[in-house]
Structure formats: C-alpha cells, structure tokens
C-alpha cells in the first residue's frame, strides 16, 4: 500500500529556512555569550569568527557541553552561509563580516608560527578534582607548526582544549552539579 505524499507548503519551508538561518547566526561570532567553567576557574567568551557547536550552556548534567569551536562543524557552517543569506537577506551584512572574521580566526588557530603554552594556563585555577582533565604541559608545549592542524577543536577563544588528534571524552561533570 502506497501513501500519497502531501504537497510541501512553500511558506512552511521558507519559515523553517529563516528560523534555521537565525539559529545558525546565534552560534557564529557569539561574542555576547560568556561561559564559566567553574571546575577550571575558566571564564571564556567566543572570539569573532568562532563557531560554537552549541551556544546553549550545558554542564554534562545531563546535557553535554558543546561550547567549543570544532574544525569540521565550522566548515559545514561556512558552507551553509550562502543558504542563510538567501533565507534571511537582512542578515547579509552580518554574514559578510562573519566570513572575514572566520578567516582571521581560522588563520590564528592554524598559524604554524604559533606556539603552545609551556604550562597549561588552567592549572593554576582548576580545582583539585578537575586537574585530571587538563592536558599535560608537555603536550601543550609541543603544539607548533603542523601539530595545530591536527587539533579537532578549540575553545571559542582560540585556545587548544582537546587531545591531539582526538577529542577528549569524559562523562564526569565539568561544572557544578545541579542542586
């Protein structure tokens, strides 16, 4: 038995495209958002040109923390920018500026002359129960040249945060548990 497909409502499609374009925009250059990771004593606000995997603040209880700039995800977003501009022509100026900022951000995080910090900058502010989640000083110091190209994600501030070559996975809470 076959079911006849209902005709697609063009107004509904247009409304969904507009809503999607606006949601996508919220994750790009989201400099108006500040994230505090209590366990690390780390306050961060996204840099212009960064793309948040999710602008929603979550703390692994139960929602995961996706307040990161992932290289792959940001490339997909950049590919969608022309579609977003078509769906929301009033945001064209934002998107043109974002493309320039994205290019600058991407060059910053992949600069072969950039050197990783000699000491993990979060070591001084992290709580004792969060020290195990920090990258080793030697691993960060080794980030130079082509090693930057192997980083899959960055803090939206452009700081390296993941294990080299693979994302660090943990089920432990990264911020204060819910009361």
Kindly describe this structure.
There is one protein chain. The chain has 179 residues and is mainly alpha-helical. The protein has helices at residues 10-26, 71-87, 92-109, 137-141; strands at residues 35-37, 42-44, 69-70, 153-154. Helix 1 (10-26) crosses helix 2 (71-87) and helix 2 (71-87) packs antiparallel against helix 3. The chain has a domain at 33-154. The strands form 2 sheets. Strands 1-2 form a two-stranded antiparallel ribbon. It has a two-stranded antiparallel ribbon with strand order 3-4. Mean pLDDT is 85; it is low at 162-179.
Largest sheet, spatial ordering of strands: 1-2
Shape: elongated
Rg measurement, Å: 19 Å
Helix content: 25-40%
Distance between the termini: 53 Å
The main sheet comes to: 2 strands, antiparallel
- Secondary-structure element series: HEEEHHHE
Poorly predicted regions are 162-179
SS strand fraction: 5-15%
Oligomeric grouping of the chains = single chain
Number of helices: 4
Please report the total strand number as a whole number.
Answer: 4
**Class from helix and strand fractions:** mainly alpha
Mean pLDDT: 85
């Amino acid at each position: 038995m076959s079911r006849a497909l209902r005709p697609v409502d063009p107004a509904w499609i247009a409304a969904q495209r507009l809503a999607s374009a606006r949601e996508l925009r919220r994750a790009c250059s989201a400099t108006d958002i500040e994230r505090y990771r209590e366990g690390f004593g780390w306050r961060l606000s996204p840099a212009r040109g960064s793309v948040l995997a999710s602008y929603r603040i979550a703390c692994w209880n139960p929602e995961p923390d996706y307040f990161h700039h992932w290289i792959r995800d940001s490339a997909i977003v950049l590919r969608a920018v022309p579609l977003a501009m078509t769906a929301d022509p009033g945001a064209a100026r934002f998107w043109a500026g974002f493309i320039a900022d994205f290019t600058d951000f991407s060059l910053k995080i992949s600069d072969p002359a950039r050197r990783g910090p000699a000491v993990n900058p979060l070591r001084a502010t992290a709580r004792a129960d969060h020290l195990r989640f920090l990258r080793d000083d030697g691993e960060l110091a080794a980030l130079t040249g082509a090693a930057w190209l192997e980083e899959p994600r960055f803090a939206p501030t452009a700081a390296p945060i993941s294990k080299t070559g693979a994302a660090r996975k943990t089920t432990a809470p990264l911020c204060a548990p819910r009361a």
